[in-house]
Write a structure and sequence with these properties.
Elements lengths: L5 H20 L11 H7 L6 E7 L2 E7 L10 H5 L4 E8 L7 E9 L6 E6 L7 E8 L2 E2 L3 E4 L12 E6 L10 H7 L5 E4 L25 H12 L2 H9 L1 E4 L21 H18 L17 E5 L3 E5 L20 E2 L14 H12 L5 E8 L14 E2 L7 H16 L4 E6 L4 E6 L9 E6 L9 H10 L3 E5 L3 E8 L3 E9 L9 E10 L2 E8 L1
Parallel strand pairs: 1-11, 9-10, 10-11, 13-15, 15-17, 17-19
Antiparallel strand pairs: 1-2, 2-5, 3-4, 3-6, 6-7, 6-8, 9-21, 12-13, 14-16, 18-19, 18-20, 21-22, 22-23, 23-24
The chain binds fe (ii) ion.
Length: 527
């Protein structure tokens, strides 16, 4: 028998392996449609990379999505029909996969766009692990992740994490993520605007496909476009992520069931259901966050030993509708009594009560409140008049007072809270005070935007002049923030991209702040 050339042999064996795996998944099916695409399938199944998230002391969530044709619906259904596909996963305690710590098989189904969410358990706390997925002859890239320290661990080593938000794909390259992927981090927090539903801003360097998504298939394609970015994939493959959302994952400036773009709340809730579904399909989050219709519970506490609790919140799904509406603007710069109304809520009653309970509980050394937008009061109007942005916390002033009461009680109880925020496309550091005379009860850092355009320097200067508790502000650079915390103190560093319009732009430290237990408020180290 004549030997096949090596390339044909490997193609054949790959095809057989793939066939075997798909056939195993399709027991009871009369036959399986399998054609030429199956061959490319075995080479390019993991086009959206791999990710991990929600680290616990004994495990984490692993994510991938099978997408041989990522920008056109994924391409799996054309190959497998509705047959679920077995996805093998392996977790190893070494990079070379000589010591397998856990393994199993997950099922990728068309109902979830052939994404998989594996909740790995039974691992050791506070150490790195490596993971990969296998389908037939195709192996995913290897991801690295990390379990959280044991909850009783008194001697937790310093923790290091990054936080980021706002990554309009057309407005810049993701150099910030290339820089982030090279840092020694325990985890990453994403504060929302992971995708943008709309095209806006100047000097686009690349383009969305299609218009504003309203259907599930369109949201899937938008996530896929963003997730084809190699630097974003690298940051996902390097660390576990904690993710929440803001408005652009669904529609600009939406509040609960109201969107400025969709007059009918029932119609908007159908869009929200599609958007939440696509978010789940593309995020390394556990099954308990899977949407049921237009709702999904994504807030919660993530504990890192005795060192840190991250309180991750949802600032969009349960909000009161915008206050002080005038004319056509959905989130006006305004002032009116309505914005102060006590019944207005930013987090909704249930989440607000949960957050109050968390802040009243015996504290870890540090508490990070991860929430979408600038928490500190910000009078934005020029001149002597006052004007507030109704989509921000200023439109929910009484809810902020209640949150400040919770933060003050937390501090009185020995807690040390740092608020990390996104959304406003600028870097800010703020003293959080209950009123002008009082001392700070917590410190807030807003970590810029990965790419999204910011406000003008003049507007930042005006805000600083009118709001003295805003101790640092810059809007001319894109980037993200790094946080290091140990038993006594730590540091926050703002990292700035030189020029997000250049694919190979450098990224460097722009400002540093120290944080001290028992001494909340902004302490500038270098700026
Ligand atoms: Fe944004």
């Amino acid at each position: 028998m004549t030997a096949l050339p090596l390339s044909s042999r490997s193609l054949l064996s790959r095809r057989r392996l793939l066939f075997g795996s798909l056939a195993a998944a399709s027991l009871g099916q009369p036959f399986l449609r399998l054609h030429a695409q199956a061959l490319s399938l075995s080479r390019e199944l993991f086009t959206l990379g791999v990710a991990s998230g929600a680290p616990r002391p004994d495990g984490f969530v692993l994510w991938t999505r099978l997408a041989p044709d990522p920008l056109q619906g994924g391409g799996m259904s054309e190959v497998t029909g509705d047959v679920p596909v077995d996805v093998r996963w392996e977790v190893a305690s070494d990079e070379g996969f000589r010591r397998i710590a856990a393994q199993g098989t997950a099922s990728a189904t068309a109902a979830l766009a052939h994404s998989v969410h594996v909740e790995v358990q039974g691992l050791l706390p506070g150490r790195p692990y490596w993971y990969r997925f296998i389908v037939g002859g195709a192996r995913s890239p290897v991801g690295r992740t990390r379990t959280a320290p044991a909850e009783t661990d008194e001697a937790t080593p310093p923790l290091r994490f990054a936080f980021a938000s706002c990554q309009q794909y057309e407005q810049g390259f993701f150099a910030a993520y290339r820089d982030m992927a090279a840092q020694p981090l325990d985890f990453v927090v994403h504060l929302g605007d992971y995708i943008y539903e709309s095209s806006w801003g100047a000097r686009h360097v690349r383009h969305h496909q299609g218009g504003i998504p309203t259907q599930l298939a369109e949201f899937r394609n938008r996530y896929a476009l963003y997730k084809t970015d190699p630097h974003l994939q690298a940051a996902h493959a390097a660390f576990p992520w904690l993710v929440t959302w803001d408005d652009h994952e669904v529609a600009n400036d939406y509040t609960d069931d109201v969107s400025p773009r969709t007059a009918d709340p029932a119609k908007f809730l159908a869009i929200r259901a599609a958007a939440y579904q696509a978010w789940y399909e593309h995020m390394p989050v556990p099954e308990r966050m899977r949407p049921r219709g237009a709702g999904a519970t994504i807030y919660g506490r993530h504990r890192f030993g005795r060192m840190l609790d991250v309180l991750l919140t949802d600032g969009r799904q349960y909000r009161s509708h915008h206050a002080c509406l005038t004319g056509r603007s959905a989130s006006p710069l305004a002032d009116c009594a309505e914005r102060l109304a006590p019944e207005r809520s930013f987090f909704g009653a249930t989440q607000e009560a949960w957050l109050a309970r968390e802040l009243a509980a015996p504290p870890s050394r540090w508490t990070v409140l991860a929430q979408p937008t600038l928490l500190a009061e910000a009078d934005r109007k020029r001149g002597a008049e006052h004007g507030y942005w109704m989509d921000g916390w200023d439109g929910y002033a009484a809810a902020r007072t209640r949150l400040f009461d919770g933060l003050a009680a937390h501090r009185a109880n020995g807690g040390n809270a740092i608020v990390v925020s996104g959304d406003v496309h600028a870097f800010w550091a703020a003293d959080l005070r209950r009123d002008d005379q009082a001392s700070a009860i917590a410190t807030e850092f807003v970590g810029g935007a990965i790419t999204s355009e910011g406000p003008s320097a003049a507007s930042v200067a005006n805000m600083r002049a009118k709001n003295p508790h805003l101790r640092y502000g810059r809007s001319d650079k894109r980037g993200y923030a790094l946080v290091t915390l140990d038993a006594r103190g730590g540091a926050v560093e703002f990292r700035a991209v030189d020029d997000e319009k250049q694919a190979d732009s450098g990224v460097a430290a722009m400002a540093r702040f120290s944080v001290e237990r028992g001494a909340p408020g902004v302490h500038v180290s270098s700026a």
